[in-house]
Amino acid sequence: MPDPDRVRNGSGGWLTVARIGTWNVENFFRPDSGAPDDEDAYQAKLASLAETIKAMAPDVLAVQEVGDPEALADLATAVGGPWNLQAADPDGRGIRVGFLSRLPLSEVTQVSAFPDQMRAVQVDDTGPSLGEMGRPALAARVVLDTGRALDLITCHLKSKLLTFPGGRFSPHDEDERARFAAYALYRRAAEAATVRAHATALLDGHGQDRALVVLGDLNDEPGAATTQILLGPPGSEIGTPGYGRRDRGDGQRLWNLAPRIPEANRYSRIYHARPELIDHILASHAVTVRVADGDIDFAGPRPHSIGDDPNADSDAPASDHRPLLLAVDLPA
Asked: In CATH, what is the architecture of 6-328?
């Protein structure tokens, strides 16, 4: 994990860094409104989450799967010190995204409606189409100690874990599985396009100068089509020959910082015993050029493996995701 206070620059000196994290805290409700379903389990989860956040020492932490805003406040209290809190509206399950920030949050905007040109998408066999994100994204701005403004967008795109009619997590047959996997993909792609549109508006073609970070649970891996939608103009990804060559696309691009994570640690969840990277930090040019290998990494213990029923471990004290942490020097 990056040093809590400093990162070495190219000449060997030390620079103060901003620490920006993201974490899916997994079905985090107070016990009277969801899981965990009793006070002891809630306190155990609260203590586990707080311990990890204390070790991370983030300036800003984007969170996903928060149930009650009151639970987010409990978490801030458990971590200690002053926090600025913001939470988006919940989805049908009652979960939402939000921010815990040591820095004041301004320009707070909820992002939900699909772009005007995009039609609503089918979400199941019989119900109405959906023209907005199932879980609204949340955008905010902070001003770092250097005086640099940093725009942040946190999101939690449609899950790959499928839910079938009646709340089932298993399909009646493979035709049903295929249909509902397609419905989920429609939604995830439309949601990615919606977040991308908001990022494009914030960048306004000036990504070389405007610091923007998109972070959260994208529910797919770096090479997935839905994840790629968020990047913008192709051809300059980290690790490709085009990286480091400036071109007209730099003002609009977002770079997935996953290649800067040590390869052996490049996963955020374990699904059916297979590590996968579905939590991401994407950054504009102004941020990306300040990030070196090892400046981004995962915190916390190795998560437990999950299956297809998200409720199977609802009382587990730890999240089934690991938090991702970026340490970056952004001069004024």
From this structure: 4-Layer Sandwich (3.60)
